[in-house]
Amino acid sequence: MGFRRGKSAGEIVSHLGEGAELNGDLLFATGARINGVLKGRVKAEAALEIGPGGRVEAEAHVRRISIRGEYRGTIHASDRVEIHKEGKVFGEIYSPCLIIEAGAVFEGRCNMGADAPPEGTGSG
Asked: 62 to each of 3, 5, 31, how far by Cα in Å?
Protein backbone atom coordinates (compact mmCIF):
# COMPACT_ATOMS: atom_id res chain seq x y z
CA MET A 1 0.00 0.00 0.00
CA GLY A 2 1.52 3.33 -1.07
CA PHE A 3 1.30 6.75 0.52
CA ARG A 4 -0.90 9.38 -1.05
CA ARG A 5 0.68 12.60 -2.13
CA GLY A 6 -2.47 14.70 -1.91
CA LYS A 7 -6.09 14.53 -0.92
CA SER A 8 -8.96 14.76 -3.40
CA ALA A 9 -11.53 17.54 -3.12
CA GLY A 10 -14.23 14.94 -2.44
CA GLU A 11 -12.41 13.16 0.37
CA ILE A 12 -13.66 14.10 3.84
CA VAL A 13 -10.69 15.32 5.88
CA SER A 14 -12.11 18.02 8.19
CA HIS A 15 -14.82 17.36 10.77
CA LEU A 16 -16.89 19.54 13.11
CA GLY A 17 -18.16 17.04 15.65
CA GLU A 18 -21.42 16.71 17.51
CA GLY A 19 -21.59 19.18 20.39
CA ALA A 20 -19.26 21.67 18.68
CA GLU A 21 -20.45 25.05 17.38
CA LEU A 22 -18.65 27.36 14.96
CA ASN A 23 -19.72 30.96 14.29
CA GLY A 24 -17.90 32.63 11.39
CA ASP A 25 -16.29 31.75 8.08
CA LEU A 26 -15.27 28.20 7.22
CA LEU A 27 -12.76 27.79 4.38
CA PHE A 28 -11.38 24.40 3.34
CA ALA A 29 -9.58 22.76 0.41
CA THR A 30 -10.66 19.14 0.86
CA GLY A 31 -13.97 17.68 1.99
CA ALA A 32 -15.55 18.54 5.32
CA ARG A 33 -18.31 17.00 7.46
CA ILE A 34 -20.50 18.94 9.88
CA ASN A 35 -22.15 17.02 12.71
CA GLY A 36 -22.32 20.03 15.02
CA VAL A 37 -23.63 23.57 14.46
CA LEU A 38 -22.22 26.01 11.93
CA LYS A 39 -23.42 29.61 11.56
CA GLY A 40 -21.75 31.91 9.05
CA ARG A 41 -20.27 31.44 5.59
CA VAL A 42 -18.69 28.45 3.87
CA LYS A 43 -16.34 28.61 0.90
CA ALA A 44 -14.56 25.69 -0.76
CA GLU A 45 -13.98 23.97 -4.07
CA ALA A 46 -14.64 20.70 -2.28
CA ALA A 47 -17.46 18.58 -0.87
CA LEU A 48 -19.43 19.48 2.25
CA GLU A 49 -21.42 16.84 4.12
CA ILE A 50 -23.95 17.68 6.80
CA GLY A 51 -24.52 14.68 9.03
CA PRO A 52 -27.87 13.67 10.59
CA GLY A 53 -27.18 15.74 13.72
CA GLY A 54 -25.66 18.67 11.85
CA ARG A 55 -27.29 22.10 11.66
CA VAL A 56 -26.02 24.80 9.33
CA GLU A 57 -27.19 28.40 8.95
CA ALA A 58 -24.99 29.85 6.23
CA GLU A 59 -24.29 31.04 2.74
CA ALA A 60 -22.27 28.25 1.15
CA HIS A 61 -20.14 28.27 -2.00
CA VAL A 62 -19.01 24.66 -2.53
CA ARG A 63 -18.49 22.10 -5.25
CA ARG A 64 -20.93 19.56 -3.84
CA ILE A 65 -23.11 19.35 -0.74
CA SER A 66 -24.77 16.32 0.79
CA ILE A 67 -27.40 17.04 3.46
CA ARG A 68 -28.65 14.56 6.06
CA GLY A 69 -29.19 17.18 8.77
CA GLU A 70 -30.68 20.68 8.55
CA TYR A 71 -29.55 23.57 6.35
CA ARG A 72 -30.91 27.12 6.44
CA GLY A 73 -29.63 29.72 4.01
CA THR A 74 -28.30 29.92 0.47
CA ILE A 75 -26.36 27.19 -1.30
CA HIS A 76 -24.19 27.81 -4.38
CA ALA A 77 -22.95 24.41 -5.58
CA SER A 78 -20.93 24.15 -8.79
CA ASP A 79 -21.51 20.37 -9.11
CA ARG A 80 -24.58 19.15 -7.19
CA VAL A 81 -26.84 19.35 -4.16
CA GLU A 82 -28.09 16.14 -2.55
CA ILE A 83 -30.85 16.24 0.06
CA HIS A 84 -31.19 12.81 1.61
CA LYS A 85 -34.41 11.42 3.11
CA GLU A 86 -33.54 12.65 6.60
CA GLY A 87 -32.35 16.04 5.32
CA LYS A 88 -34.11 19.41 5.58
CA VAL A 89 -33.29 22.51 3.55
CA PHE A 90 -34.90 25.91 4.02
CA GLY A 91 -33.62 28.55 1.61
CA GLU A 92 -32.29 29.02 -1.90
CA ILE A 93 -30.26 26.64 -4.03
CA TYR A 94 -28.15 27.55 -7.06
CA SER A 95 -26.78 24.41 -8.71
CA PRO A 96 -26.80 22.61 -12.09
CA CYS A 97 -27.93 19.38 -10.36
CA LEU A 98 -30.40 18.85 -7.49
CA ILE A 99 -31.20 15.43 -6.04
CA ILE A 100 -33.98 15.14 -3.46
CA GLU A 101 -34.73 11.73 -1.94
CA ALA A 102 -38.26 10.74 -0.99
CA GLY A 103 -38.97 11.91 2.57
CA ALA A 104 -36.60 14.89 2.42
CA VAL A 105 -37.84 18.44 3.12
CA PHE A 106 -37.08 21.35 0.79
CA GLU A 107 -38.79 24.69 1.35
CA GLY A 108 -37.43 27.47 -0.81
CA ARG A 109 -36.33 28.18 -4.36
CA CYS A 110 -33.99 26.42 -6.73
CA ASN A 111 -32.24 27.96 -9.74
CA MET A 112 -30.51 25.47 -12.01
CA GLY A 113 -29.38 28.08 -14.55
CA ALA A 114 -26.14 30.01 -14.71
CA ASP A 115 -27.70 33.22 -13.37
CA ALA A 116 -26.79 32.90 -9.69
CA PRO A 117 -26.18 36.25 -8.00
CA PRO A 118 -22.51 37.07 -7.31
CA GLU A 119 -21.07 35.99 -3.97
CA GLY A 120 -22.13 38.19 -1.07
CA THR A 121 -24.97 39.95 -2.90
CA GLY A 122 -27.76 37.61 -1.87
CA SER A 123 -30.89 37.37 -3.98
CA GLY A 124 -33.84 39.43 -4.84
From this structure: 27, 23, 10
SS (H, E, C) 48-117: EEECCCCEEEEEEEEEEEEECCEEEEEEEEEEEEEECCCCEEEEEEECCCEEECCCCEEEEEEECCCCCC
Rounded to two decimals, what is the model's pTM?
A: 0.83
Could you tell me how many residues make up the chain?
A: 124
Residue 118 has pLDDT above 60, yes or no: no
| pLDDT band, residue 120 (cuts 50/70/90) | low
Question: What CA–CA distance (Å, rounded) separates 36 from 38?
Answer: 7
pLDDT at 87: 98
Closest to 51 in 3D by CA, of 69, 66, 38: 69
Cβ atoms < 10 Å from Cβ of 73: 18
Residue 55: CB atoms within 10 Å:
18
The 10s digit of each residue's pLDDT in 3-35 is 344 455 557 678 888 999 999 999 988 899 999
